[in-house]
Amino acid sequence: MTSIKQIAKEVGASVSTVSRALNGYHDVNPKTREKVIEAARNLNYFPSSAARSLVTKRTYMIGLFFGDNVNSGFEDPFFQKVLSAIRELVGDAGYDLLVFTNKNKERATYTTLCRERGVDGTILILTGREKQVNSQLTDLQNSGIPCVAIDVPLEGDRCTYVESDNFLGMKKAVSYLAGLGHRQIAFIGGDEVSKISLDRLNGYRSGLNDAGISYDPDLIEMGYYAKEYAELAVKNILKKNKKVTAFVCASDVMAFAAIETLQEEGCSVPGEASVIGFDDVNEAAGYHIPLTTVKQNKEEIGRAATEQLLKIIEDPALSPSPIMIPCELIVRQSAAEAPKKT
Amino acid sequence: MTSIKQIAKEVGASVSTVSRALNGYHDVNPKTREKVIEAARNLNYFPSSAARSLVTKRTYMIGLFFGDNVNSGFEDPFFQKVLSAIRELVGDAGYDLLVFTNKNKERATYTTLCRERGVDGTILILTGREKQVNSQLTDLQNSGIPCVAIDVPLEGDRCTYVESDNFLGMKKAVSYLAGLGHRQIAFIGGDEVSKISLDRLNGYRSGLNDAGISYDPDLIEMGYYAKEYAELAVKNILKKNKKVTAFVCASDVMAFAAIETLQEEGCSVPGEASVIGFDDVNEAAGYHIPLTTVKQNKEEIGRAATEQLLKIIEDPALSPSPIMIPCELIVRQSAAEAPKKT
DNA sequence: GTTTATTACAAAAACGTTTTTGGAAAACAA
DNA sequence: TTGTTTTCCAAAAACGTTTTTGTAATAAAC
């Protein structure tokens, strides 16, 4: 590594002058600046970000945490797109992305890890189903570290979150089904704890309500966003209620699982049963029965999260508020008119 | 940030003693060590990695570069799995992952970016189709920065690369088709420049050769790993040669495109034409015609790359050699016996 | 009871930057 | 001329660590 000292020696100036020349300060003679820049170029100089950040307190790194859920992270079909958007915007703004992966820190928390690396801000990509993370989250909320979470309610001085309008999204799906004549609409939910799951459930109930359909707990099962559990959920509902004609699912993977299970049980989709998913992942359109689903605007979520974070970083006084991104019902072929009663 | 100084003041010791106590040196009294650790815990102390790395020359960060290709990065279905494996192993080894995304550096190169951030090593995820990157690559090769590339031949003192056995993989596909009676086997290649594309082409030719089939340039088209180009390629081949009964493609996306195009042209798959892909992406198994394809062992590629990189970092004397990961033919339903001649 | 080893600590230098402060030289004003 | 700006630069402190070197105080050896 060539340092600022070597440049100083090269051009016969002091270290401070070189620094000021390189950083475009006004009180340096154009000629010396030229010489400095020339020398820097020749010596292939680039400033050590560690040394710099030690004094400036800025690293131009954005931290990234993934939930410990297996699907979370690079492989999750939903988060991929969110990530791409984040990557894009963060890069445009002149930051690099630090993905926290180190597993050898015993007592580390989100906060300590951020402080240790000195990231300027951080993005949390969680599912809301992580365990024993709550104390860490409140800790982070109070830390003053600029931070925005995705899908998980996080509010503080310099903290906020971004999510889809899960309530309205799910409501749209149910209203659509009701419009097609369905009255027995089952709900394959995510889980019983996370905000997004609860919002989707409430959207479902609100949709039923608007359509004048009474809520039947027998039609509710949780699928935990996993294929296996979703299959079980569908089977359970079929056992309890033979008359169900539609399934609305809290994710596309669960919708795929539902369709497969229904077909295995000899029930055609969408002829005898309609299925609607949530997310609109890549596979949804090309699925053998193109999936009708509630699309989450993933790019927009990533974009909003990044922009918000950058704003929080820029302006210490800003007190941010949560951002909600609209969902859109994508009509394809997995939901159709309710079968006529026989 | 609470610093080592504050701990020193707290316990009435010198800065150096605190440092040595925390780092487990032997020449510190057990009692003072206890006090120091206690204080560190109470003050919620974590060492500034910037300050530390300034003197130790280690950051415990692994750099990550993505090719500028659109598909490259978080969204590429192939690299996702590679990435997951990298993430896992890097984390186990006590490193974090620095994704280079900053676009505001004018004259930056791989090498300068690595030096600037001080990463201990770096992984290159490229496609081999990046433009004007060659000089940067040779620069990196000579830099002495530990580095392993994926799919792109990179060799140097502390540089190497990992790739699938593309030659043998493609050869297996062709041999399989030949075994099914196909004689007119078209090849939808990747591109004309990258090593992996060339290796796959050579595997194709070798497969033909072994089966006693002569090579026909009319059956070769490039699809540039993109849906649109692959469609064009298939149409061109159909124009030139009506008798072709099989298509082997250098990627799954191109295979999907081929199947769709064939069906549009009124040619049933696998009845009238067989199609084999390459990669075995997630969608392959669930595709409406489950795709027969050459599976790249993505997790293994990521694992090998990471392990190799860590070894290079550990041992400055090690001169690494390239690693080749075997491919496996996954037989599903998109390839069948050649139709009888009519 | 002196010499030698051992134990436990502190002081200071170093890493590569930025930033603050101060001041000489040059330019301008009177 | 003298006084006052302005222009340009250097010295030094600071950021938070690690590491090297030195040295008291204590323990062991004879």
Automatic annotation (TrEMBL), chains A, B:
Molecular function terms, GO-annotated: DNA-binding transcription factor activity; transcription cis-regulatory region binding
PROSITE patterns: HTH_LACI_2 (PS50932)
SUPFAM superfamilies (UniProt xref): lambda repressor-like DNA-binding domains, Periplasmic binding protein-like I
UniProt xrefs under Pfam families: LacI, Peripla_BP_3
Domain HTH lacI-type: start-end pairs: 2-56
Lineage: Bacteria, Bacillati, Bacillota, Bacilli, Bacillales
Name of the molecule in the record: LacI family transcriptional regulator
InterPro entries: HTH_LacI, LacI/GalR-like_sensor, Lambda_DNA-bd_dom_sf, Peripla_BP_I
Record organism: Marinococcus halophilus
Protein keywords: DNA-binding, Transcription, Transcription regulation
